[in-house]
Amino acid sequence: MSLSPVYITGTSIFLPNNPVPSEEMEDYLGFINGKPSKSRKIVLRNNGIETRYYALKKGGEPTHTNAELAAEAIRGLFKDDPSGMTKIDVMTSGTSSPDQLMPSHGVMVHGCLPELGAIEVISPAGNCCAGMHALKYAYLSIRSGEAHRAVSSGSELMSLVMRSGVFEEEVQHLIDLHENPYVAFKKEFLRWMLSDGAGAFLLEDKPAATGLSLRLDWIDGVSYAGEMDTCMYQGGEKDEEGHFKGFKLYDSEGLIHESVFSVKQDIGLLSDNIVPLGGRKVKEIFERRGLTVDDVDWFLPHISSEFFKSKIFEVMEVLGRGIPYEKWFMNLSRLGNVGAASIYLMVHELLHSGKLKKGERLLLLVPESARFSYMFAMLTVV
């Protein structure tokens, strides 16, 4: 059976409301225990994020659901040809912050897009890699000949679980116990890291009739969960030995007093492992595919913090795969860390920047600290 080529023929993004500068973050997320955060400036100084987007009004009132963010990005693919929405075979939607446990995120996005009609819908679960998993399913659907046109999306709505109200019961409980009423850094850290937004790609088995398209040459992924502990998590907690306890094992009082549904990060585990493990996979991919640094014209790494930029460069350089900074393209400082949507936002911006030339190749890297997974892809401008 011959395999069909796959092209990204359209991109679209949706960023809710206006950009939020760092000094206004607590106007939207609120103050924990009524006091400004002591860690905010420290975290922001290291992550390099200057503005981000929230699906919130000042004071914390929501303006969108996650499904609505993704639907707006998908609808944007067809702003010049709304009838194109009736010609989609498959829709895939990845996120780490669905609006509910059930139904799946994808079908809720589909529910916001009745104009798509009855189609196949896939909902990859996970964290930052979920958007790339959605892309891979769409890619494989077309590559196999099972579909001719597919849409993939990545979206996040993390701000709702970063609002101060999520932590107030825990803080009050600590006060009642005469303990220090401060939320653990592993919980507060991510309040200053994560943003809201969505991006979408239109994939087809032939390039667009006009303008540039991106041929999707390959997508590779790997999980190191077999050798690594849980690092970023929500809906559970780690004990002192590192064992993970999911929310179903808590009683109602424990869920509230320990703010189990806040998003947490094991900072030490993250810092020691996220870059070296990614470097291991880079080495394997380059060797297996016979690639050199000269084969990469643009490098689009999704990183949560500018802190990791030099570390990624150093690891790749040691491996003999150091990609010069002039080939890097990121928008973290302006858009923030939008998880599963971030790679969509970067590709969209670069594609519409006027910088790309036919024949150039883009290497995408998306790491996921949840339990250390990585996704890579190579695109060629056509």
TrEMBL record:
A GO MF label: acyltransferase activity
An example Gene Ontology biological process: secondary metabolite biosynthetic process
CDD domains documented for this protein: init_cond_enzymes
Beta-ketoacyl synthase-like N-terminal domain location: 123-206
InterPro entries: ACP_syn_III_C, Ketoacyl_synth_N, Thiolase-like
Keywords, alphabetical: Acyltransferase, Transferase
Statement: the UniProt record of this protein carries the keyword Acyltransferase: yes
Entries under SUPFAM superfamilies matching the protein: Thiolase-like
Boundaries of every Beta-ketoacyl-[acyl-carrier-protein] synthase III C-terminal domain copy: 287-365
Protein's UniProt keywords contain Transferase: yes
Entries under PANTHER family matching the protein: 3-OXOACYL-[ACYL-CARRIER-PROTEIN] SYNTHASE 3, BETA-KETOACYL-[ACYL-CARRIER-PROTEIN] SYNTHASE III
Protein name, per record: 3-oxoacyl-[acyl-carrier-protein] synthase-3
Source species: Dinghuibacter silviterrae
